[in-house]
Design a protein that fits this description.
2 strands, mainly alpha, 72% helix, globular, 350 residues
Amino acid sequence: MPASRKTSRSVACALGLSGPLTLAATGAAEAHVKWFCAYDVAGQPQGLEQVLCLNFEWLTGLALLCLMFGCLAEGTPLGGALLNALDRVTTRIRIDTELLVRATLGFFLVSLFDLGGIILTPELKTDVAWIPWLQLALAACLIWRRTMPITGLGLVFLFSYATAQYGLFHLADYPIFLGIAAYLIAQGLGLKPFGIRPLDIVRWSAAITLMWASIEKWAYPEWSAPLLAAKPQMTMGATPELFMQAAGVIEFTLAFALAWTPLVRRSAAIILAAIFVSAIVEFGKVDAIGHSGIIVVLLAIAADDVRVPVRVRQVLLAPAWYGAALAAFLFLYYVGHAALFGGLGTMPVI
């Protein structure tokens, strides 16, 4: 088949899959691959010349169109009606956000105690006997609002301990824990650091976590090969390469949307929460425990009724900020990996 026809066919497939993949990405996209498959953080990532291919460009272009559509709808009567509907539907979640976070995080920490030998996430194994008991004690501190900050400080300690054991690059997957810790401390003490709401701190940490995770899907698509081989229906006929490219673009775009305007971020939070919950059906208890924290954060974001005036420049600047975020995360991931594992002589070139 001529190269031009192959390219056209791949692009058409990418465009056709973009909608269904938003939910089909529940497998390799949102089941954290390090929990289920072999991985090597120090291994050489796929070259940028392979990541930034034609399919990738078309997929990001399509994602930008969806983002722009959401931005354009924000300031219209339709956008206002959607926000009003979201406010009504999510009232209970909004009123009980703190309680939901405490209950879910309590479930998470008690589950870690029950599993044993784990620091915060399933792949961070430990033989230290007191770690599970510390996590159980942190769960107990969530019973009372006054002791919530102790749980927050405990999460910071566990994150730091895991970083010392597994390295900064590995723990770069999980800044969401630091965001949740900041939320618990600020909520428990009634603080707004620098005038920033605790929910906004954890929202930004969720966005950063998921944008970083999406880069990993492009850099190490082979890690997900066993999952795709075991569940080939997830790709819906696409090649594994195209599927992982699309899954990464979908995740990065939805994660970026969490940092944007109210309607856009609330819609993205709902879609992401649906994806994570659907992944639990596929991957079971481990996935339910591991992703419980981010799911409750996404529900809190979806229920957040704070509104800001949407200006035309926010719509016009969306592609520029999206491109800047994409370039920044690619740079940080590849240059950071080269600096930590390969030496500056292995810096990527396009």
